[in-house]
Every structure is written in C-alpha cells, then in structure tokens.
C-alpha cells in the first residue's frame, strides 16, 4: 500500500466486517488518505466492497474528497490475526451477536499492536459487555456511526465502565479529524441515542399507518416537509424552546406541555408490533416507492449532500461548538506524569453554545437598561446571564457536570449596579471553567453554589477594613497615606468632573507636573479648576497619566472608542500559533495541579489572576521589578497563594531569566501599561516565539484597538468613562454631565470580576491547547466589563437604597458577613475572605497563603509536588 500522512496519529486501519457499515467506513477512510485492510472471511467480499466504493465515490467527491486513488491503499485479508498486526485503529463491524464479537476481539487483542485504538460500530451492545472478552477493557470504545457512515456526520462515542479516558479522547479526536461530529454519551443505554430516537419515531409512524391515519408515502411527505427540514437546523429541544416564544422552553412546558402530556399518555396505550397484518400492510405500501433500493439510496444521498452543503457540513468545514468541545487531532504522548485514566462519567460532553453577544446587542441592552431602570423585583435570570458570560469563552453551565445554585437577589448593597450578581457571575463562571477542567482531567462533575448576599465582600474585601487583616490590622498605603490623587473627584472649570486616580509614583508625579501643583488636595482642586474637563483629559492622555473626564453612559455610547470596546467578546481567546497538543495528566489533586503560571501582575485585576490559579493547584510566580512599589492593601488581597521574585526585565540577564521561566510556563499573565510588554519583548507573539504553546493573558483599560487603546487606568477609571460614577450620585440614572459623582458603595466596579473572567479564559485556552495544541492570546479590558455590568440592568437609585442592606438575614436582599479563613504566614497571622462560591468537589486551597514580596527564587517548583 502507498504511504499516507495519517489523521490524528492513525495511518493504518483494519475494518473488520465488509458489510454495508464496514464498506462505508472503508470508503471514508480511503478517501481521507488512510490505508485500509478489510478483514472478512465471507467469499466474494472483495467484489462487494469494491462495488460499494464505486457507489460511495460520487457522494465523497461531492463532499470535496479526492477519490481518484480510492483503492490504491486498500487491501483484503480474511485472517483476522494477520489483518490487525499493523493496525493503528481496528473498526469492528461484525454481526450483532455478543459471542461473535467476543471471539473477534480476543483475536484482535492478541495480535494487534499494544497502542492500537479499538472501536466497535455496534448499534446496541454496550461496550462494557463486549470488553469482557479483553484483558485490557480500557482499550475499547463504541464508535457508532449513523448510516451511511461515509456520509452522515454523527458518530456516537460510548465508553464502557472500564474504558480509559485516553481511549475516549483518542477516538473523539480521530473521528473529529476525519470530518465527523463525535458525540460522547455520558452513560451506556441500549441502542444509544440516535437509534432510540429513530425507533421512537418509527414506532409512532408504524402505528399511524397501521391505524389508517395516513399512508407510508403521506407520512414520509409530512416528515420531510416539517420535522425533517426543521431538525436539520435545530434539534427538538431548541425547536420547542423557540416554540415557547419569549418565555422559551419554560413557557412551553408551563402553557403547552399539558397537550404534549396528553399525547404521550395516548401513545402509551398503543400496541405496536411487526405482526403479520402490519408486515403485509407495510410491504404492500412499500411498492409505491418506485425504483430499486440502489436508485433510491443514490437519490437520498444526492439530496442529503445538498442539505449538508447548505448547512456548511462538509468534510473540510465542520462547524460546531468551541474547538475544545469538539476536538480536532489531539493524539500526543501523555507527559511522564500520572496517566489519565478517569471514570467515564468524568468526560465533558460537547454542548451547543449561544453565540457571544454582538456589539449591537450589547448597546441595545445598555440603552434599554437606561430607559427602564429597575424599581421592583424584576426576576433577573442569573442563570441566563451566566450562559452569556461562559459562551464568550466557549463554555456553558453544563460543563460543570452538576447543579448550579444562586441564592439571594439584588439589590444587596445600595448601588445602581447589580453588585451581588456581578461578582457572583464572575466567581461562578470561573468555577464552571475549573469544574470543566477537572472533568477534562478525569474528575467527577460537581455542584456549585453562590450566595449573592456575600459576593460584594469578595469583590472588594478591604473597603470596610474588617475582613481582610494581617496581624489584626487592615492593609493600607503607608508609602503615601494622604495621596490626593486617590478615590477623589475634582470639578473642572466647565462644571464637569475628572478622576485623577494615580496611586503610583511615576504617574502621580506626572499629574503634579501637568497641573503645576503639589500633593495637597485643595491645591489639586484649584489646579483642575483652571481647565475644561475634556482638555484636561486630552492633556493627561498625552502625558501618560490617569485623567478621565466623567461621562454619562449616553455620552460613552457615542464615543468612537466605544465601537472598538463593544465589538469584541467579554473574554477574547485567539489562537496565534501552532504547536503540539499538551494534554494535562489525570489523577490530579486539584484542577490546575501541574500548571505553571508566570505573571507580571500588580494591583488587583492582573495579580488576582495569579491568586485564582494558585488557589486551584497552579504554581504561580509573579515578577516584580527591583524597587517597584506595591501598596499593602492590594498586595495582601491579590497576591494570596502567589510566589514572587525580583527580576529586572530591561537588562540581558533579566530577560534571559524571564525566557527560561517562560519556556516551562503554561500561562503568562499581566496587566501592565499598554506597550510595556512589547518594550521588554513579552508581547503575545514574542512570548509564543519563546514558548510555542503559551497561554498569553493581558488586561487593559480599553482594549487592543481604538482611540483609547494606549490609555492607562484602573477599576474606577472604567466606571468614570462608562457613566457608572455619575449614576451612583444623587441624580441616579437621570445624571447629567455636571451631576455630582459618587463612588459605589463598596468603592469598586469590576477589578476582581475581570480577574475571575480572565482566569476563566485562561482555563478555556488550556483545555483547547490540551487537544488542539497551539499558542493562545486571551485579552480582556476593564471598560468592556463595565459595559457588560450596565447591560445587566441598572436600579433606580431610590429603590436600591430602600431595599438593600435588609437587616433580616433570611431576606434575599440581606448583606451577609463573608466566609473567611485564617493562616499563620511568614508575613504574620492572616485573615482573608474566601471566594464565597462553594464547589462541592474542588473547593480550592493555597499551598502558601502570603509570602513576602520577592522572597522566592526565580525557579519553578516540581510539577505535581
């Protein structure tokens, strides 16, 4: 046979059984360039298979496959022991008799290579039963196609009780690379899924024809003119979801479900069997089909291809969920760590995902929120909001493998924002991603519970100076305790406001130079009052300092910068380079065990990513420049669990150290001034050149493009630009450009929210890399997060202040004390705020809670230590 490039590590396939299914498989394998040996002792099998190849060739060509050398790599070997000796894959299509399959698989296991993939096309016998014939039952999986297998996309991948995770992933990756749509079933069930659905429908078809309601031809016309066309684009559940109108599937079940239940009850009374009268009736009516079976099949395939073309279902284009949910080739040696052999229920199942929110939809939601501020309990759907958030990372709530529960409802604190739901959504999204990764590595699904009434404490753990303590005292800013460029608003000459939040030496001195003033609050106020706000903002922009003019949200939506901010997803994940897949070992202690994260995070948004990763098993090492300042208040909150070291990134020695660390890292994260990473050779593209396969995560104020892309800023800067600070003031949603602004009740808008969503994106990228390979860029920005917060709805200020902080601890609007933890650390006795989200199987724990800044050597800890 001729050489072939292979698919997902598969080069040589032995097809056991040359009947209709086996020959159809052979046709597809050959058309995809694989070498195929058909093993079937039946006389004349070679002629039968060649005849089927000739029949299949037109369909394969129509799907864009080359059939000019279809038989060049085809061979026949009746002796099974000989046929499987060089096989990378054995696809068995033998008789549906357990004894026969046992005999075939015993012979196969005894003679096939030890690393060959074993798949059975059985239409109903569980893999668990077939695998009892094998010494290693973990090698066998069901790979059940939908007939004709060379044409229809579906392959049901069904693991048995002892099927290994590696076997399932290899099978799923191979079928995906073959152009199929592999669907891993969560449980074994007789007949699997497609056949059960087909059987249920056909049972009713036989009943309706038998009762004389319609003829066979009429029934076929009804199906092809209704359900057939509809189900080609949406499945049954989505179809009924749409049938429920604005209320979706819940509305359908509540208002129309009773009619469905009546039909079910009626169907349950039906006695349907292929008795003699039924057989005779169906046989007679089948004569009306006309033409031979071959002619009818050819016409069916021609029409099927037309439908597939219309839907884009070609072998060179298989649309579907996010890449890691339906893997492309991922056959790659497992690292020399624990071998992944998880239970079958630990396999995440591909899900149909809603598309990420478009810019127009985002704008429309914000405008509707402003036009109709919430003045009552509006029944906000936290679960629907969670689905939207996860969709931007290619995930969905079902990836957790368990139940997700939200407790309480906004307003919890007096704010125009949903400051209970917003942090709850961020923490829950991160938890779903962690649960998905845990299942990806073989763990079980888990329940996630989030109490909105505690969530604001985790969004800003230090604002009330009582929950986050070191040595019994809250962290502060001892290097600059009276900075007038903190959380203060200053009014300009034209009555508008600016917020010069500049808490670090370089930018703080830049403001004093710009304003020609000194570090005293009244002096700053007098200097600002000499400027029009827009002119001062522009001057601050040119000086590289933080000087945003406060805007109303309506003004923000009209900015040219807004178009760039709104056009991207909440969590943007881009593949920027190719590399080999890097599977994560199974049997891990935590979801991120063995993962290494190198950081240049500071303040909260970036540093918080390190905390999130460390809490769930990653070795996180953050780089600080020698002499760089960090305030105690932010270090003590965002660097929990993180090791850190001092390295000068500007000199050759420092860069060499960073590159050495980067080559062994899985994730790099940073929230530095725009252009800084490129200046020191650590842009996403440069990092990927040093380490193909890196996950590069960067955080900014206003995104990667547009007129604000070079601006610096913080959490509150995004709130000032987006209109939040003005609406938090006394005028609420009716705020004007000159209205007096106010900080949110908990002082912040979204710093930690961005950290949680960034962590979600990093985990999603790790799962993609595990099966697809590649380097990935993950980007988020504070102003996009602020816009998303507004899109969730805004409260009438008076209503929020009246309802929030309910003293009744059982009230949905109570503001409950947070859950805390304590630890004795090298820095002193520490009390911190937990994530408030409860994960039933992987709650998270820190290796080291708080270490002195820069106290760790610039080396990695052993993986899986």
Automatic annotation (TrEMBL):
Keywords: Oxidoreductase. The lineage of its organism: Bacteria, Bacillati, Actinomycetota, Actinomycetes, Kitasatosporales. This is Carnitine dehydratase. One of its GO terms (molecular function) is L-gulonate 3-dehydrogenase activity. The keyword Nuclease does not apply. Residues 320-356 have a biased composition (Pro residues). Residues 191-260 form the 3-hydroxyacyl-CoA dehydrogenase C-terminal domain. Pfam families: 3HCDH, 3HCDH_N, CoA_transf_3. Pathway: Lipid metabolism; butanoate metabolism. Gene3D superfamilies: Crotonobetainyl-coa:carnitine coa-transferase, domain 1 (3.40.50.10540), N-(1-d-carboxylethyl)-l-norvaline Dehydrogenase, domain 2 (1.10.1040.10), NAD(P)-binding Rossmann-like Domain (3.40.50.720). GO terms for biological process: fatty acid metabolic process. PROSITE patterns: 3HCDH. InterPro entries: 3-OHacyl-CoA_DH_CS (IPR006180), 3-OHacyl-CoA_DH_NAD-bd (IPR006176), 3HC_DH_C (IPR006108), 6-PGluconate_DH-like_C_sf (IPR008927), 6PGD_dom2 (IPR013328), CoA-Trfase_fam_III (IPR003673), CoA-Trfase_III_dom_1_sf (IPR023606), NAD(P)-bd_dom_sf (IPR036291). It comes from Streptomyces alanosinicus. Belongs to the 3-hydroxyacyl-CoA dehydrogenase family. Residues 317-356 are annotated as: Disordered. Residues 13-187 form the 3-hydroxyacyl-CoA dehydrogenase NAD binding domain.
